[in-house]
Amino acid sequence: MTAHTRGVFRPSAEVRRILIIEDEPINQMILARYLEGNYSVLLASTGGEAMEIIHKEQDTISLILLDLNLPDIHGLDILSRLNADPRYARLPVIVVTADIKAEVDCLTQGAIDFIPKPYPPREIVLARILRIIELSEDRDVLRWTERDQLTGLYNKDFFYHHAVMLDDHHKTLLTDAIVLDINHFHTINDRFGRAYGDKVLQRIAEKALDLVSVSGGIVCRSEADTFYMYCPHQQDYGDILEKMSVDMDDEDEGAGSENRIRLRMGVYSSVDKSLDIERRFDRAKRAADTVKDSITQAIGIYDDAMYEREILADRLIEDFPAALREKQFQVYFQPKFNITADKPALCSAEALARWNHPGMGMVSPAVFIPLFEKNGMIQALDYYIWTESARQVRNWKDTLGVSLPVSVNVSRIDFLDPALVGKLKGIVEEYGLDYKDLILEITESAYIEEAGQIIETIEQLSALGFCIEMDDFGTGYSSLNTLASLPIDVLKLDMELIRSAFLDPKAKRLLEAIIKLAESIEIPCIAEGVETAGQTADLKEMGCDIIQGYYFSRPLPAADFMQFVREEEKQEV
Predict the structure, then answer these.
(1) Residue 181 near residue 267, CB atoms below 8 Å
(2) CB 400 within 8 A of CB 394
(3) Residue 69: phi, psi to the nearest 5?
(4) Confidence of residue 315 (pLDDT cuts 50, 70, 90)
(5) 9, 139, 492, 519: which one has the fewest Cβ atoms less than 10 Å from its Cβ?
(6) Rounded distance, CA 276 to CA 295, Å?
(7) Burial of 348 (0-12, 13-18, 19+ CB in 10 A)
(8) pLDDT in tens, 162-172
(9) pLDDT on residue 543
(10) Higher pLDDT, 498 or 333
(11) What is the DSSP string of 182-228?
């Protein structure tokens, strides 16, 4: 049956090369004539000559015919050398011998088949050779698809397959899912080059294989610089991490003797085998991510607290669409007071999202805001808050005759929406507001990330008449000397900066310097998180323009805030 009819692509027989290792000229000639017309033949009369040819031609040799009794190196020693070297281990070897007793030793050392002496008819020899070559090629194709070509480890798909097989054979065995990442691997490639980075990955793969060969289990290179291990439950993960970390010594081009490659590890210990394999390693990956930016911690363990957060996150994401439809999200307003005059005066408010969940009660924004920012759902929530805030501003105008601007958060993700400017403009027009009635709060970090695109959009919003407020200034992202060039109308100081200023004299002097700098470029400052009369007095003395915080009021639901505004109006009269 031809290769074509079997539906398997194979190289033509003419390009296959067979190495005959035989010291007897007559035997060489007989085998060469057997192969003539079907294969290209290489000849070696000694073991040393054979190893030289193998070293040079390893990638083009399809099969080796090996005589055991050679003048310099015994055939068993050649088999042993080939089997021990990863470069040559793939080469199929058929032993040609009259010594039937040697079969067990040859098979142990890696031989695939035997051809007896004297030789059987040509068609039998050719049939056996073809079958062994085809089996070897099939094995190479399988290895190519299941292995990572750089490290020789399983790729992720085959790793998962083998992990399932391990579970099937060891149903009661406690097992761990472990994820290993190289810290700042991209900088290793940048500093020392791709070849050096590849060598790092290969070293780590070797250490991983050594570990699982002792403890049991399997390992793969999942992607780039990430490795997965599935192994019997371990006690000392610190020991595993230490053994996996590698030193690249002076012999490595471009690296110094102190160049120790450090890893971080995520562990899902004693896995729940009712979960699919992917989910187990997702948990281990999340555990690894918890120590991603840590200087002191390198191992993250998936625990009950992480599980509870995961369950909560899944539920909040699932409940989000209904929450928007049913208006479970409420807008609370925290008043801002101008303190430049003798008496503080209510001048604006900040809109804050609160979630009154029907099953869980009030959900902290510290829980759902980061979650929605991470998965992009924050865009829909922000639009909801903008719309509700505009509706309230319109209500205050109509009911109280008060024009009170409200600041709303515009997330970095919002700027990925090309229709952002049109949406904000549409909300203002729908409720008949002035653009100054909505103050757009944009975090300091947003000006740095994707700065060009974001600043261009902010300039368009500013040109329409929106007031632009930089939020959380002082978290460490911006340079002070860039303030004058950014499209900013108001500078809102980070709450932690305010708190630390009243605990540390140096921090207080820094705060005062920032306020003076903003004053020099004619940008008013807002301080949030103000809680005492003393803090208010100090901020006023420093030159701060506006403050908000519990000293004046906590955030209030719309109805309570309206009453608060009424009380303020009475006091002013």
Answers:
(1) no
(2) no
(3) -95, 90
(4) very high
(5) 9
(6) 32
(7) buried
(8) 898 888 888 89
(9) 93
(10) 333
(11) ETTHHHHHHHH-HHHHHHHHHHHHHHHHHHHHHH--EEEEEETTEEE
Give the CATH number of domain 3-146.
3.40.50.2300
| Mean pLDDT of all residues in 270-295 | 90
More confident of the two residues 258 and 458: 458
204 CB-contact burial (10 Å; exposed 0-12 / middle 13-18 / buried 19+) = buried
Residue 29, pLDDT > 90, answer yes
Ordered DSSP codes for 242-288: HHH-EE--TTSTT--TT-EE-EEEEEE-S--TTS-HHHHHHHHHHHH
| CB of 156 closer than 8 Å to CB of 224 | no
Report for 123-127, 188-192, 495-499: range of highest mean pLDDT: 123-127
Write out the residue limits of the CATH 3.40.50.2300 domain(s) in the chain: 3-146
Within the chain, all domains assigned CATH 3.20.20.450 are found at: 311-572
Q: Amino acid letter at 317? A: I
141-153 pLDDT, tens digit per residue, is 666 667 787 888 8
| Residue 257: CA count within 13 A, CB half-sphere | 1
3-class secondary structure, 473: strand
Within the chain, all domains assigned CATH 3.30.70.270 are found at: 156-302
Q: What is the CATH number of domain 311-572?
A: 3.20.20.450
pTM comes to 0.66
CATH of domain 156-302: 3.30.70.270
CA distances from 346 to 195, 388, 572 (A): 63, 21, 10
- The residues, any chain, with a CB within 8 Å of residue 376's CB and separated by 6 or more, are 413
Question: At 506, which amino acid appears?
Answer: K
In degrees and rounded to multiples of 5, residue 87 shows phi and psi of: -70, -30
| Cβ–Cβ under 8 Å, residues 110 and 82 | yes
Counting residues of the chain whose pLDDT is more than 90, the rounded percentage is 51
Cα separation of 139 and 135, whole Å? 6
- Residue pair 270/175 in contact (Cβ under 8 Å)? The answer is yes
Q: What burial class does residue 211 get, using C-beta atoms within 10 Å of its C-beta: 0-12 exposed, 13-18 middle, 19+ buried?
A: buried
Q: Could you tell me how many residues make up the chain?
A: 573
Amino acid residing at 323: A
Mean pLDDT of 335-351: 94
* Selection from 483, 356, 353, 453 nearest residue 407 by Cα: 353
- Bridge-based pairing of strands 345-357 and 329-338 is antiparallel
Q: Identify the weakest region by mean pLDDT among 138-142, 159-163, 276-280, 545-549.
A: 138-142
